[in-house]
């Protein structure tokens, strides 16, 4: 397939995945963005900045190189969070798509500044352990290259805790909100949906039972591994 | 009616009941399944595993015998929770249909690990007492035959407490979520809807009044028995 | 207008008001009923019992006399809550329509067993003071003539507190749910909507500020009286 | 453009912005109003009082002078909150449109009587610091010229705290609800949507983490200033 055609198909997928965000109730106004990478081609496709979902066209998707430099004439400006996506793609080499939202329940947890613990099998089916909440960025990290440093603090969090990005395909950035990722834009969006739902469930679980603890490791393993990896037996 | 026709009609009912789950907001993605049994025919019909509700066809409903063995060539794989359904049908002999969901409010209670008490008449109209929460499965029960053991722990819970399955047509599996049942797939789905709503009501009732207690037995009796049994006078 | 025509129009209004309940999210399944009275004609029109809103027809509305005796041949059975409506009409002589629902937020308060205090002007625009929660019915009141006694305990509550029914057009029945009323079926439904919304607001207000108190009497007066009575100046 | 034509366009914008309120879930029944001012023309256009959104027509929008006196024959009565809008336009001279709602989450905060703190970047993207809650009005302020005094207590709050109205384009009136504003009716409505969403997020954040504090000033600055002012780089 030609480079042009591959990029056209990336634009279409990124466009559709962006539209899915308000449809799923994960994004109000313009508060979200989806991107996809093709490392062989050296190309990232991402939503333009601040364009309303109603008016957005597939042709407006922004094409950049792997450092986030614009590749097309007459391009719109990319999402202001592009630099975060670039860092995630550089460091998380098995991630092909990234989503950022301000979905209500995930933002609540991010604002609370706590990790999201695995209180049940709904969580374990997708996230193989707690979804981490990053530390707060320092003043220096915010003043210069804020969006890049947001990516770096996510990577730092995953490295320090020795988490594989595809085993826990999402993060809560403290005081800000969620990022999720996956093999495809639609899978990364699905992970945003699940993260938001699991945040809601965990929040209310803690209110019903203030002493609730994580499910046991063997139950976490069972549910995660029946859906992922070699021994998976869920689905067709 | 011929065996083939009966099975066709079971497939149609199971298909429609499965579609009802996302319509009622009880299921996101593929997180639910409905089955129906015909004991005379020795047949269970259940949703295929991991098939999206949008793409699902009536012909894809999976037909098994009463032990869960596939009965049709070219069959899709059945829901991974089939073994739980099989145990429930074997032990709860007056149950004709089973539903499993990850509906938001019922999962919260299941994750909290508490029985759902009868705080009002909305509960009493359908559930004749607390909806029990099972104990957590042991490591051994999770490692081998997890889905079958999920069924067994539900049955154990009902036996220990001496509950008749049709008098409390639902359960919370600790750390996991709800199962409900009924005489028909549509009745079992209705019970899932009611269980989720009653979980929501109970959760918030406890927040408004932290010392709330169950309604008195005579009010529970009144509401349950005006809708069920010989002296029922609700409906046409 | 002929007696027949007046009753036809009552049926149409009661039918439309019943349909409005699920549309407004106040009723799931068959959990609600609306009635209207015409005292000159000696007629009450009410929803039939347990008929689904999808299948319900205007011709199925049930016509009774002021004691709740059926007046039409081939009538369906009336709502099982008819006896409650009958008592309210007998004792609250300026009420023309009654609504009962199990709307989520009002049920939470009724289950909690607390009066709904006036924490803001949204409440004061419709309810001229706390919406009372009844006492729990005694065993005797539940065993015999339960629905009639539900009406009586509502009336007892309003009499003891010296509340005029049209000034606080709703009540929470302890452990059960809300009844509301008004001059017309559509106004009574509107009051159900407002009661549910105000229950939601009050519940969350108490969580944000656990020491919140009622708004001052002068603000309650201002908002209630700018919408009701001789000095009202809201609306056209 | 002729005076007539300018007013026609104002009516159309005000009408559309009013319709947007129930569409966005910010208004039930008739509980909201939007207005726009043209200071050169000496004209305010506002929603009529108590007219249902379903029946409302663009021609029914009410035109007044800058003191709120009706300018058109056969005019409907203006929103009862007009006097509040008039004060806000007089004192907040860079505001072109005002919105009042009883949106659920903002009312909860207003009833709680607390300022809405900036717990995250979703807040900081629109509100440059805490959204203030006014003091409660005195008895005298409520008895005479209540709506005008509502405007005055908003202005007092902003003056005392030295807040620029366009930097924090909204307020919570204690025991009542939110007002927001902006350069255009649609922007003012957008600010109502954001205020309600941020109220929801903050409320739940406080429940997850009872010791949560405001985000640091440098993060507030970063997010607010990347969307507003000379150094903004968000959007096209």
Give an account of the 3D structure.
- The structure is a homotetramer of 236-residue chains.
- By secondary structure, chain A is an alpha+beta fold.
- Chain A has a single domain, classed as L-fuculose-1-phosphate Aldolase.
- In chain A, 42% of the residues lie in helices and 12% in strands.
- Chain A has helices spanning 3-23, 82-91, 104-112, 121-124, 139-143, 146-160, 185-208, 217-227; strands at 32-38, 43-46, 62-64, 97-101, 170-173, 177-182.
- A 6-stranded antiparallel beta sheet of chain A has the order 3-2-1-4-6-5, with helices on both faces.
- In chain A, strand 1 (32-38) and strand 2 form a beta hairpin.
- The first copy, chain A, is globular.
- Chains in contact: A-B, A-D, B-C, C-D.
- The interface between A and B is medium-sized, with 27 and 34 residues.
- Chains A, B, C, D: Its EC number is 5.1.3.4.
- Chains A, B, C, D: Involved in the degradation of L-arabinose. Catalyzes the interconversion of L-ribulose 5-phosphate (LRu5P) and D-xylulose 5-phosphate (D-Xu5P) via a retroaldol/aldol mechanism (carbon-carbon bond cleavage analogous to a class II aldolase reaction).
- Chains A, B, C, D: InterPro entries: Aldolase_class_II_sugar_metab (IPR050197), Aldolase_II/adducin_N (IPR001303), Aldolase_II/adducin_N_sf (IPR036409).
- Chains A, B, C, D: Keywords: Arabinose catabolism, Carbohydrate metabolism, Isomerase, Metal-binding, Zinc.
- Chains A, B, C, D: Belongs to the aldolase class II family. AraD/FucA subfamily.
């Amino acid at each position: 397939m030609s480079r042009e055609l591959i990029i056209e198909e990336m634009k279409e997928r990124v466009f559709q995945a962006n539209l899915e965000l308000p449809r799923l109730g994960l994004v109000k106004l313009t508060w979200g963005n989806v991107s996809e990478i093709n490392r062989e081609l050296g190309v990232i496709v991402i939503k333009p900045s601040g364009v309303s979902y109603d008016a957005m066209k597939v042709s407006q998707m922004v094409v950049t190189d792997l450092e986030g430099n614009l590749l097309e004439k007459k391009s719109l400006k990319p999402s202001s969070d592009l630099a975060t996506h670039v860092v995630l793609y550089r460091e998380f080499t098995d991630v092909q798509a990234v989503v950022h939202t301000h979905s209500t329940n995930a933002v609540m947890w991010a604002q609370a500044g706590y990790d999201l613990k695995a209180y049940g099998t709904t969580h374990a089916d997708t996230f193989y352990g707690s979804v981490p909440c990053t530390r707060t960025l320092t003043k220096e990290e915010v003043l210069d290259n804020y969006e890049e440093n947001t990516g770096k603090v996510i990577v730092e969090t995953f490295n320090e805790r020795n988490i594989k990005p595809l085993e826990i395909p999402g993060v809560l950035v403290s005081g800000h909100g969620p990022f999720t990722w996956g093999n495809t834009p639609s899978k990364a969006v699905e992970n945003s949906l699940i993260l938001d739902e699991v945040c809601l469930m965990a929040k209310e679980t803690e209110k019903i039972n203030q002493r609730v603890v994580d499910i046991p490791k063997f139950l976490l393993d069972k549910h995660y591994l029946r859906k992922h990896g070699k021994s998976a037996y869920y689905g067709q």
